[in-house]
Write a structure and sequence with these properties.
The structure is a single chain. By secondary structure, this protein is mainly α. Helix content is 89%, strand content 0%. The chain has five helices and no strands. Helix 3 packs parallel to helix 5. It is flat. The mean pLDDT is 74.
Amino acid sequence: MKELNQQNSTETPIACEENRNRRIKMAAALLVVGFLCLAQASASGTIGALDTAGEKILALIGAKWVKALLAVALIIEFGVIAYGNAQGEGGMIKKVLPWIIGTSGILGATSIVNYFFGSVKSESLAFAADAAKTMGIVAVGLIS
């Protein structure tokens, strides 16, 4: 029993030291990221620069070819789930679900942002609704 207590007491400081080092590294990394974000924000100077950058990103995400690529990615993701379930891999949904959520979020990002900022384009909402219906049909086909 005495040996067991000595063994535990010798392992604990090492574990504490590793945790402390990990925390210090994480805090330093967060400070560096925060500093870089602050430096970038102060360098551009105006909210207009942020608006133009946001519009460029939304224009890229809203492009037809990006939406088509994301729709294909969703189909592939659902195919991976179907293949994994066919092979008896029950945990495949847990592995692929974050990718599906991210792809769906990017696919609907322009519609969501345009809706909240008042410049709703009916064709983008119609495309999102059509894509959602199509993905629902594909998902139902893969599940059954």
